[in-house]
Write a structure and sequence with these properties.
Protein name: 3-isopropylmalate dehydrogenase
Number of domains: 2
Subunit structure: Homodimer.
CATH topology of the largest domain: Isopropylmalate Dehydrogenase
Bound molecules: nicotinamide-adenine-dinucleotide, 3-isopropylmalic acid, manganese (II) ion
Largest sheet: 10 strands, mixed
Strand content: 15-25%
Distance between the termini: 25 Å
Helix content: 40-55%
Subcellular location: Cytoplasm
Shape: globular
InterPro entries: ICDH/IPMDH, IsoCit/isopropylmalate_DH_CS, IsoPropMal-DH-like_dom, LeuB_actb
GO molecular function, one term: magnesium ion binding
CATH superfamily of the largest domain: Isopropylmalate Dehydrogenase
């Protein structure tokens, strides 16, 4: 297949700035292989919500669903109550399109700075569950604003949901040289969900005898992410733990400006969605200060998912070369995008 359709949701804050650069690189790279992306841009996010009160109307979601893939910048804005866009737009996309594998690779590129003195060879991927856990909205609040207020946020974990993401993580570990999988949870306290996850990993492990399986409580995992990140290969974890440890993973491996992600529907029953791990960064939005590398690497993951492996590799090679020559000189968002584009097609 040579002609793909792409739904683009630039979103809020730095989202539009970094998305522009990701599309610049993507278009330039795929053109070399005779591949095109026919783009439809969706005006979703804070502007739209203020104008119409809408976050993501069902009809628009069904339009988005018809595309081969989705590229998203970031959503969330200080002018909108926290949670409205995050839940009503971003999580609605992830849940409805069944993005049960939230893939978040971390590696330290040659010559990139890490805040760690001796990070070692860091190259791991977090397989974060994307459709369940405490994110499902299974909760409520009573007597809000009174001294007797009660708020609950009940994590939902199903045998079906846990097993499918665990199987995906094992399969990814099989395709990697070190063949190691670490389950991260908190089964010493969250005994209901935690034991389901642990039992599921133990059961699936029997089908993957070559994989070395490890378990860490999430608190201890944060220790090792800082003291010995090279020990990790594939990490499989629940939605909330995965959210938290992937910001930490980004911070130790070159910064949040480099961290890419894919919200994958491995069954291809709906389009997968690619976005940086970072958010809309309101503190630097509109100033051309954002690093677009995470968005550009997300476009590489997008190519990979669609089977455009050469294009995916070309983007990664160009980014790696750009990172290797970063000198500390401040470049604008567009300058970084231009430099990577030039390398990718040069
Ligand atoms: P954030 O990731 O937006 O920002 C955290 C810090 O990292 C800020 O100092 C920011 O300037 C910096 N940063 C982020 N991306 C950067 C980049 N590309 N280059 C340089 N610096 C960068 O997280 P936050 O401040 O917790 O959240 C801001 C908003 O974004 C909130 O509304 C939140 O809900 C939303 N959010 C959205 C997504 C998403 O759309 N996937 C992800 C995380 C947060
Ligand atoms: C991320 C973000 C989202 C998440 C929010 C904005 C819903 O933090 O993509 O990491 O928690 O998944
Ligand atoms: Mn996050």
């Amino acid at each position: 297949k040579k002609n793909f359709t792409l739904a683009v949701v630039p979103g809020d804050g730095i989202g539009p700035e970094v998305t522009t650069e990701a599309l610049k690189v993507l278009d330039a790279v795929v053109a070399q292989y005779g591949v095109t992306f026919e783009r439809t841009e969706y005006d979703l996010g804070a502007r739209r919500w203020h104008a119409t009160g809408e976050t993501l109307p069902d009809a628009e979601l069904e339009e988005i669903r018809k595309h081969d893939a989705i590229l998203l910048g970031a959503v969330g804005d200080p002018s909108v109550p926290s949670g409205v866009l995050e839940r009503g737009l971003l999580l609605k996309l992830r849940f409805t399109l069944d993005h049960y594998v939230n893939l978040r690779p971390s590696k330290i590129y040659p010559s990139v700075g890490s805040p760690l003195a001796n990070p070692g060879e860091v190259d791991f991927v977090v397989v974060r569950e994307g459709t369940e856990g405490p994110y499902v909205g299974n909760g409520g609040a009573l007597r809000v604003g009174t001294p007797a207020e009660i708020a609950t946020e009940v994590s939902v974990n199903t045998a079906y949901g846990v097993e499918r993401v665990v199987r995906d993580a094992f399969a990814r570990a099989m395709a990697r040289p070190r063949k190691k999988l670490t389950l991260v949870h908190k089964n010493n306290v969250l005994v209901h969900a935690g034991h389901l996850w642990k039992r599921t990993v133990d059961k699936v492990a029997a089908d993957f005898p070559e994989i070395a399986v490890d378990y860490l409580h999430v608190d201890a995992a944060t220790i090792f992410l800082v003291t010995d990140p090279a020990r990790f290969d594939v990490i499989v974890t629940d939605n909330l733990f995965g959210d938290i440890i992937t910001d930490l993973a980004a911070a130790i491996s070159g910064g949040i400006g480099l961290a890419a992600s894919g919200n994958i529907n491995p069954d291809h029953s709906a389009p997968s969605m690619f976005e940086p791990v970072h958010g809309s960064a309101p503190d630097i939005a509109g100033q051309q200060k954002a690093d677009p590398t995470a968005a550009i690497l997300s476009a590489s993951l997008l190519c990979d998912h669609l089977g455009l492996t050469e294009a995916a590799a070309a983007i990664e090679v160009a980014v790696t070369a750009d990172i290797a020559e970063r000198t500390g000189t401040v470049r604008s968002t567009a300058e970084i995008g231009d430099a990577i584009t030039k390398r990718a097609i040069g």
